[in-house]
Amino acid sequence: MQNYSFDMKDPVYEIFGLKVSIHIHTMENTYSLSPEKTIVELNNQTITIACSQLSWAGQQQRANGKFSLSAFRNDRDQIEFQMSAEAEQKIISIKLMIRDLPPVSIYDADTGSDIPINVSESLVQASGQIFYYPYNAFKYNNNLKLPVFFLKNRESGNLLGVYSQDHKVRAKRFVVSEEVQGEYKGKCCLELIHEELAVNLDTKISIPKWIIGEQVNSESFRDEYLAFSESEKGIGLTRWEERNDFPDWLREISLVLNIHGMHWSGYIFNTYENMLEIIRYVSERLEGRHILAYLPGWEGRYYWQYGQYRPEPLLGGKEGFQKLCSEAKRLGVHLMPMFGSNIANLRMENFQEFGPNSFMKTAARTRYHVNEPDWDLSRGHDNGWQAFMNAGSPAWRKELVRQITNLKDTYQFDGVFLDLVHHWVNDPDHEVFEGMRSLKNDLTKNNPDLLVVGENWYEGLLSIFPLFQVRPYINQPAWVGRYARTMAHLLEAEPSRGSTGVHEKGYTNYERKPLSKEYIPTIAFVDGTLEKAKKEIDEVLKVSHQYIDKYFPSKQSV
């Protein structure tokens, strides 16, 4: 983050003990309020701010525009802020700044830990912390699953809680820093930024309410937000027990097998025959109906083949894949091949049919290009062939659905795994989140018993997908089990040598996860895992039986 090299001289207004300032961001500049054109009133316990002119360049200039704010204390003694604005240029975001705060730290409610605010990534960046909802590809550790945020008073220990009452997935940024100039130099400031969907940008904007609670209990405050999210006014979360948007057989799954196929380089971990051997071994010790077999790299060179899916000749070809699918079905095991929801190799011969009009891009139309593993070990990380597609684009979505549906009709597998569904950007042509919803709906329209699973989650995605592969180093709160189930990420090690299979991480320590309702026991297989790690495989099978006994009360493990 950066700061301006001059004092913005933003007017400050006191609202129920909070000192606030406003920024309005268009696609071409940053605006504040003109104090001489601003009226503050208190009527019936509601504070209103009405501004009929905007300012810019540290109050040196004036611009046509309007801003209004209303704030009141609700029946929980929280402050509710409602804001709207008008400008000559299209408005992308409004920032509410809470200033002159006492010394604070950021509070992680999921871990109960404090996070310092004075962090700087380089000599040309200002000290402070930015947290993102729903996703920022460059800030894994600062992504929020919910638009909920806490600050902890370092002296009293009291928590200040904030959330946005939004019914759509729209960008929120929570920024904490010490001011570097002006009246409040050295004081902490909290910035609450709501960004409008780029597909809807206009010269007028009205943003969802910000709810600010003082001296809150983090768990109660979060649950209050989740109750809103479950309501008709929220994003549409549905409790696991009440969901009807996935096949019933998922409720009987107690074990996931991550069976790796072919690495990006062409290295073969498991052929289709090897995969079948693994499935046979496991299904002899656990009923097939409890097993979900996830197949990353089934289509050939991992990621390189994205965008043009078919059985890989070097893994056994069409006949080998048909045998795998047919035999797994006979054993009652549910197969789930992996597909890229928003990635395609632009060198594929079919790319021109769907790609050029489907690139993911930012609000300013910068092409979205991240996630550049060192696939070839050249240390250059230059994967220009790896193009991000927007599932909201009809051309890409139609083509992906066509390929998956044709394969499903031919081979009769039971599920599909969609890679990278959590990647989000404020695309000006098509909503990324709604594109994911449409993709899932298009896949299941004529195949209602098809399970559709995603990688990683944020709150909105919990309303679309019932099962997620989750990264082990990002804390997974138990409350996610209210709405969905999770399984181990494919980057997690298999037990024989710590290999991460097709994933670019390479090697890591193997660790068996403890039993918990929201997490379905998972074990990975590369070449040699079945032969060299049978003891650990059998231990995980025991955990799978325990999962059935503990969480499927009407079932008995066999």
TrEMBL record:
Cross-referenced SUPFAM superfamilies: (Trans)glycosidases (SSF51445)
Pfam families: DUF6259 (PF19773)
DUF6259 domain ranges (all copies): 242-422
Name the UniProt record assigns to this protein: DUF6259 domain-containing protein
Source species of the chain: Neobacillus cucumis
